[in-house]
Write a structure and sequence with these properties.
heterodimer; A: alpha/beta; Nucleotidyltransferase, domain 5; two-stranded parallel ribbon; 4 helices; elongated; B: 159 residues; five-stranded mixed β-sheet
Chain lengths: 148, 159
């Protein structure tokens, strides 16, 4: 006996919403994107307290070797001599009054390198600096406290 | 034309196909374009560490806050990362305990962080982090008065 051919539903993947999902993701990435002006890789110190750094900020990075790179936040960062940080800071304060400076220094760098930078910023009368850090977990807080 | 006429007149089951351009918007490539953009943004995006501790520098360098050396608590950070608080060796988590009675007595008591030139920067940040938490931990009314003199300031005002 010959059976009637059943009506088969075609194997169609519903792709109509695909574009919607994709555009949603696009919007997310567009909102979160920040074109980093300073791409220096440093091992940041870890802190429990962390506050959001304003988007409009100048960056000064200090590597573990004590090399310094600066950017006003308008252009890509450029390497400078430690002695020239004060000139950079003075120009920054003149061009963008009130702009905070984000200090992105390596965890292990000798403090004198950072000291020189902070001193330059103080001389240039920069108002606020941010010490960039990574999140420290509470568990690490107990044994993280050096000393001894 | 004759077929159409008979179809309409006699048998309604006969269907005539007419090739008409589709009135749908071709959206099948939309997802491709969108995913291309996603990939671009994913590659270029960097979840940058954009958080840290803020630190207000003195408003005017000409009149630095006069901190009496004897009044203040001095936290000396050694090159090996150990802490000497008022000439006593102390661990990071003992600082607030030590400061509590002093701050209850005088909430404005200045705390000076003085890292040695060869001390690791991370230790200074760790101490600063602890002091910033002091307000909440010790339930103080105001933030601990932390000052971070630079080497130049120490040389010109203290000695």
């Amino acid at each position: 006996m010959r059976l009637k051919r059943r009506h088969e539903s075609g194997a169609i993947i519903p792709t109509a919403s695909m574009a919607d999902i994709a555009f949603l993701l696009i919007v997310f990435f567009m909102v979160t994107i920040t074109f980093e002006k300073d791409k220096t890789q440093v091992a940041l110190p870890k802190t429990e307290l962390r506050y959001e750094v304003p988007k409009e900020a100048a960056y000064i990075s200090v590597t573990d070797q004590g090399q310094i790179r600066v950017t006003t936040g308008e252009e890509m960062s450029t390497p400078v001599d430690p002695e020239d940080v004060v000139t950079f800071a003075a120009n920054l304060v003149a061009s963008f009054p009130g702009r905070p400076v984000v200090l992105k220094a390596d965890d292990q760098v000798a403090y004198r390198n950072v000291d020189k930078v902070i001193d330059s910023l103080k001389q240039a009368k920069v108002e606020t600096i941010y010490l960039l850090s990574e999140q420290k977990t509470v568990d690490a807080a107990g044994d993280g406290g050096g000393g001894g | 034309m004759t077929l159409l006429a008979t179809a309409a007149g006699e048998d309604s089951r006969v269907k005539i196909r007419v090739n008409r351009p589709s009135d749908e918007i071709p959206t099948s490539s939309m997802a491709d374009i969108a995913f291309l953009l996603i990939v671009y943004f994913m590659v270029t995006t960097t979840f940058a560490a954009t958080r840290g501790l803020d630190f207000n520098l003195p408003k005017d360098d000409d009149t630095p806050p006069i901190v009496e050396k004897e009044d203040a608590v001095l936290i000396d950070i050694q090159p090996d990362g150990s802490l000497i608080v008022d000439r006593k060796l102390m661990a990071l988590n003992e600082i607030l305990e030590y400061l509590e009675p002093k701050l209850k007595n005088n909430p404005k008591k200045p705390v000076i962080i003085k890292p040695q030139p060869e001390a690791p920067y991370g230790m200074m940040v760790a101490v600063f982090d602890v002091l910033r938490q002091g307000k909440d931990t010790l339930k103080l009314e105001k933030d601990i008065n932390v000052s971070l003199p630079t080497q130049r300031e120490i040389e010109s005002f203290w000695f």
